[in-house]
From TrEMBL:
Pfam families: Aldo_ket_red. This is Aldo/keto reductase. Gene3D superfamilies: NADP-dependent oxidoreductase domain. The record marks K81 as: Lowers pKa of active site Tyr. The active site is at Y53. It comes from Tessaracoccus oleiagri.
Amino acid sequence: MSSLERTLRDGTTMPAIGVGTFGSDRYSPAEVAKGVETALGIGYRLVDCAAVYGNEDLIGDVLASAIAGGLPREELFVMSKVWNDHHAPDRVRASVEKSLSHLRLDHLDACFIHWPFPNSHGRGAGVDDRDPHARPYNHADFMRTWAALEELVDEGLVRHAGLSNVTVPKLQRILPDCGIQPSLTEIEHHPTLQQGELFQHLVDHGIQVVGYSPLGSPSRPERDRTPDDLVDMDSPAVVEIAESRGVSRARVCVAWAINRGVVPIPFSVKEHQLRDLFEATRLRLTPEELHALRATDRNNRLIKGQVFLWEGAGSWLDLWDVDGTIPGWHGYGS
Ligand SMILES: NC(=O)c1ccc[n+]([C@@H]2O[C@H](COP(=O)([O-])OP(=O)(O)OC[C@H]3O[C@@H](n4cnc5c(N)ncnc54)[C@H](OP(=O)(O)O)[C@@H]3O)[C@@H](O)[C@H]2O)c1
């Protein structure tokens, strides 16, 4: 098992690498659960789940059997997320209780509000369509949702509360209004999307960054693909370092995240890939290699979230507050 860990704001630790569980439109819940079983066997102890991934029940079977087989619960760090249709105090509790029941756990080590955009009717979005019920960020409503998560922390159902898919303008609104500060935040993070300002803001506020799609998400859904996208494993700097080191491109991407202090959560259901990725905790990149990877940053956002665009919104860039303001801010909450 990798001994590399990260320390959270309350002094507790979490593994420095985890395994993702979003099967995209490629892998069935059973395949993903089997992947988690393989990952646990290799030594992964951090599992990134979400209610909306539709596989927590089968992952729960895997966790229960691992624990019954002798894996101490306290070695595991299991995370879940509250989906967009559960942005209301009673719905947050319902979401977490369902995740706990599916995962067969009595607490989540971390729970995130999955996206800062609410909707009202289930997933709503088809593969290619906008979510017809999506609504823009509403600060007052979001803070009520956050407060509900804080209550679950107070009750011990959730150990660490987290944000996901937020921006600096949103953090500037959210953090001063939190009763309990987020311990971690999940953001898209790979060499070609380094999110420097957001990364620094999170670090400055003592928030551990968890990096999703660390390889450049080659298996992401069709709806998230545009012609200019670059999978990081194909980035020339990554290829060159991988070739000169004699390691895989995937390992270089994950090692870069770990070297930056980010907890990467790559996804795979394949044993050889999971083993390869796990070895990244041992790969120390040189200052020259880090410099070359830093230079690959090109704001290459792969999970654009366009299905969450509300009626009347412009492009998907509105989701990410690219001009430093929250679109439609005036009139939304306090
Ligand atoms: N908070 C959020 O909103 C959010 C959003 C997106 C993702 N996530 C989380 O982040 C996790 C990871 O993100 P992701 O799945 O988008 O992208 P990713 O980890 O960057 O890419 C996963 C894909 O990379 C390939 N791969 C994995 N290991 C490899 C290796 N060693 N060598 C070569 N190729 C390898 C696999 O493709 P093949 O299957 O084709 O082999 C796999 O499907 C998700 O599962 C989820 O838990 C969270």
